[in-house]
Design goal:
The protein contains 11 helices and 18 strands. The protein is an alpha/beta fold and 482 residues long. It is globular, with a radius of gyration of 25 Å.
Length: 482
Amino acid sequence: MRFIVLFFVAFSFCLHAQEKAGVDKINTLLEEYKNDPQLKPAVVSFCVLNAKTGDQLIENNSKLAMTPASTLKIITTSAALGMLGAGYRYETKLMVDGVYDSITGMLTGNLVIKGSGDPTLNSEYFKKSDGGELVEEWAYALKQKGLKRIIGKIIVDNTCFDNNVPGNWIWSDMGNYFGAPPNGLSYNDNKIKLYFKTGTKTGDSTQLVKQVPEIPGLIFINKITTGGKDDNAYVYGAPKQNERLMTGTLPPNKSSYEVEVAMPDPAWYCAYALNKALVNAGIGTTDKIEVTEVPMKQLTESLHIHKSPAMSSIVYQTNLHSNNLFAETLLKTIALKKNGYGSLYAAIDIVLNYWKGRGVDVEGFFMSDGSGLSRSNGISTFQQATILSKIYRDPNMYKTFNSSLPVAGQSGSLASLCKGTFAEKNMRAKSGYISRARGYAGYVKTKAGTELSFSVLFNNYNCSPTEAKLKIEKFLEALVDL
């Protein structure tokens, strides 16, 4: 017995010594940050907690409100899991507005696509192996039901959401794929793929050679020139605006360079694509389509119900790919299920109250969207690390949430991080990056086997995004020694 007691005393002493060495290592790194001229105008904030107990191990500026960029997605996705459940599925219904005669196959009236906010409709992240369009599947299902002709319109009811762009998004983001706003009826990830032929030298004009999908009436004003090594093209345009200005540069000597941009009206395009699919399937239509601004409430008959993948799968894709559209949709879905309407501002209040109800001090937590694209978001690293610790202690949420986070050295935005170190495969985290704001928030297992929750955010640094990433990587690698 005396031997066992001595063993545990010695073991505890070793753990304490290792933790002290880890703290010393991070404190030395913090001094390096303070003396770094590229970080002179910056705010460096971090907080590290024991995930199981919530006890704080080390911090710096951890109570300051920081711009979190996409690390904010941990708040949105975990709240969606907590309030909607991992098994939640969206339902998009093809409904009858009029009279459907199943004997003759005639629909005297309108076919209504009743949106529920599902962001996965025809998404590239959930496409079937055959690569077919989702609307072709819908057309086939309607034909199997006996539908032969629609004497009316194809109407989209996407009024379950407010369908507004988050008010603090900037103009230069909104026309690009990462600024595609959520919709009560999203389709094709709400984006278009453009393909450009570029010139041979800097300053040459470029040519738009193809767009997928083709959208009637959409006009692109191409002022993109040849230059640089990367995609530095920007597309400007608001929702439902069919004229898009394209500026910036693309690399030289490309015959079909891909650029992704936001779709002006995904609900309208879904109806348009379904109309084409119905005609191709031999179902007659009047070619009339409409997106209603008024909820259609007197609908009782469904001809087809499409169910989304489970919430667990949507959260996985959201965090792995840092998908802004999915994150914004999840946020509005929380309000839809709680209040019956997907209002952004109501959703933010619900999420803040959810975490407050779970013991998180939300004072100074400023939430403007669900994805972190807005620069007006503000949250402290202490709040992020605390929320992660709360998730860790929640058996109904942790496994699903943790598996959605990219793995250091292996996947997603962490694939190149911490290669060849103990942190590789032992760290899962959500990254975040917008102009002059970069960070990571997640979990790491130390060399001693302790699970930590952490958040580290750099704001307003005076270096390139890659250089900021390398500076933060030193901190991430040091966490395993705590």
